[in-house]
Amino acid sequence: MKKKFLLTTALTLALTSPLAFTTGPVYADEGHDDEKSGIEYQMFMGSRQIKGEIPSHEMNSKLFVPLRLTAEELGYEVKWDPDTKTVDLLKNNQFYKNIIPDHMMGGRSMVSLDVLSSYAENMNIKVTKGSINLFKKSSVSLSQRGYVVMGPGNAVISFDMKTNDIIAIYNDTEIPAAKKAHGLAVSPDGKKLYVSSMVESEVSVFDLEKESLEASIPVGFKTHHIEVNPNGKYVYVTELKGSKISVIDTKTNQVVKTVTTGKGTYLPYLSQDGSKLFVTNKVDNNVVVIDTITNEIIKTFATGKAPSHIAFDDQTETLYVTNTGDGTISIINENENITVSVGKDPHGIGISDDLIFVANAGDETLTLISKKDLSVIETKIIGKTPGHISISPDGGYVYVQVEGEKKVLILDATTGKVLESIHLISDGHQTSFPKNNN
């Protein structure tokens, strides 16, 4: 099978005996430079940056990558023929023979993205601002994908919840609100992303099946956090450093109501059945409860100083709130309002059947508390600036953002043990999943 490329670059794929594969020098210079580098690009394999002596670069409106570096990262044996000045690749009895470099740079062969896509046949290649991203091709359904919003990176990444491999990235040219994005929600069927940005006054709706922008919804204020109702009919977005929350109809993609909740409106959180919406007010030091049928405030609960994140247990109708201003969490139900001390600047909070998880952004720790007697079981260092906490749809795993170290920790929801981590391209702010009330 043959493919033709510009500048007479040709790539031939041949399936032959390994004995026919000749050995050449390994890291000797592959030729003399005939070009100067243009705009440089970073390259990532999933979340890991691939670094070499010679960077990928743009030249004459085309992108070029180091052949040896990328091929070896993909598991190929690389052979340079100094006589023909061509490159052969070998992996699992599969040969890519007689690759002609487009040009040389620092003694290394450079090839175009067209050539890269030929020998990276099991990878998706995506170019974003200043970077070339390679992801493993995945057939996992949309309902089995998780997402992380990366504000500083102006992007949202998607990962396979079974393998935790990063499989896609969407930037702010595709999702406008990904620019300095802060809030992220996924529709219950996993087909749409709702993204809010701290520098935009609109919510982006991204169709994941078509991988295209469906709508940009103006809400009349700079946005902050966002939630989608488990019934999929409404989305709720809070005002940045304000006092309001807007309700968006997902059928029409229009704001149908704006509710004034109090000073310092911060985070929305829905009960599992979607009937109640809880909203923290950091200045008023309280949480309001909104009936999602009438969109009216029906209750207000006092909290500690500067309440931030929320978790709610539908079975016991108990509310859990982090108070960033005084290093506590509030545990609230109809009969009691209890305060428990945790770490410095508690931020994210999540609950499992037996445990309460609290991310303390100010002292790099995670506090585990018994739901039964509210005793602190353990406080452990997990990394710089831990933030949002999310629970997997099946309740078995806890995802903790460690923003200062560009990673997401995955914990066992029963034991609190760290099982794995997802390393990110940029600082991640929040992990989100499809969730419904079925």
Structural write-up:
- The chain has two helices and 40 strands.
- The protein is mainly β and about 450 residues long.
- The chain folds into two domains: about 130 residues, no CATH class; about 290 residues, YVTN repeat-like/Quinoprotein amine dehydrogenase (Methylamine Dehydrogenase, Chain H, 7 Propeller).
- The strands form eight sheets. Strands 3, 4, 5, 6, 10, 11, 12 and 13 form an eight-stranded mixed beta sheet that branches. A seven-stranded antiparallel beta sheet has the order 21-22-23-24-25-26-27, with no helix packed on it.
- The protein is elongated and about 85 Å long.
- The two termini are about 50 Å apart.
For this structure, the CATH topology of the largest domain is Methylamine Dehydrogenase, Chain H
How much of the polypeptide forms β-strand, as a percent range? over 45%
- CA radius of gyration is 25 Å
CATH homologous superfamily of the largest domain?
A: YVTN repeat-like/Quinoprotein amine dehydrogenase
> What would you say the CATH architecture of the largest domain is?
7 Propeller
Overall geometry: elongated
Helical content stands at: under 10%
Count all strands and give the number: 40
Using the coordinates above, name the CATH class of the largest domain: Mainly Beta
Poorly predicted ranges (pLDDT <50, ≥5 residues)?
1-29
Roughly how many Å apart are the termini? 50 Å
Tally of domains: 2
Counting H and I runs of at least 4 residues, what is the number of helices? Answer: 2
**Class per helix and strand makeup:** mainly beta
- What value does the average pLDDT take? 90
Give the biggest beta sheet.
8 strands, mixed
